[in-house]
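FW: tagging you since you asked about this chain on Friday. Here's the raw sequence from the shared folder, copied in full. Didn't touch anything.
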Amino acid sequence: MIDFITSRLESLSDETYAGNLQWFFKTGPGEYGEGDRFRGIRVPVLRKLCREYPHAGLADVVGLLASPWHEDRLFGLLLLVERYRTADDVGREEIYDTYCSHTLNINNWDLVDLSAPQIVGRHLQVRERAPLYSFAASGSMWERRIAIVSTLHFIKQGEFIDTLAIADRLLDDPEELIHKATGWMLREVGKKEQPVLEFFLQQHYRRMPRVMLRYAIERFPEELRQAYLKGLK
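HL: got it, structure written out here
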């Protein structure tokens, strides 16, 4: 089935849009997406395409994840998300293991953000969460992003402990993409329980990377936001 899927993806390619994506996802020398290749397919199109392949197997997904084409990898992850949603417990364990075994190919921020909460976060909701802390300590920026973004699932359930604990571990991370992701998750905590976020900020905001802080307080009233930015809290 993998050949049919890749042929279908190729048929949907848009060279002009692909060029825009090459720029947007920073694929130039020394940039975080260096060398990535794009077909030029929009995410809604890929989501709709998932309906055409409800019986694609894990072997097909693994093949897609090994592709040099960004959209092929993303499509494989969207298939995994959809399979996880309908799978039984055994199937979900296999999907989770497949995901965690192929993080080398989950190597851009959209690939992480569109899959980690729905697979890793959802799977660990009722399980030991030690894998998240292993990811948070990884030398791979993308695994560290998986660690923090996966907690979005917990936040939606009103659970913040792991988000805050992992955010604490990532305060000194060297990568701006991690600062942005961590600030985003902190903002999501604040949307649920602003006092929880403010308690965390009171302990850490002076040493937080600026972009992390800006993301975290984005929805605060302007006067309060400025107070944090100016170090007056």
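FW: The mean pLDDT is 96.
HL: agreed, and DSSP finds 16 helices and no strands in the chain.
FW: great, closing this out.
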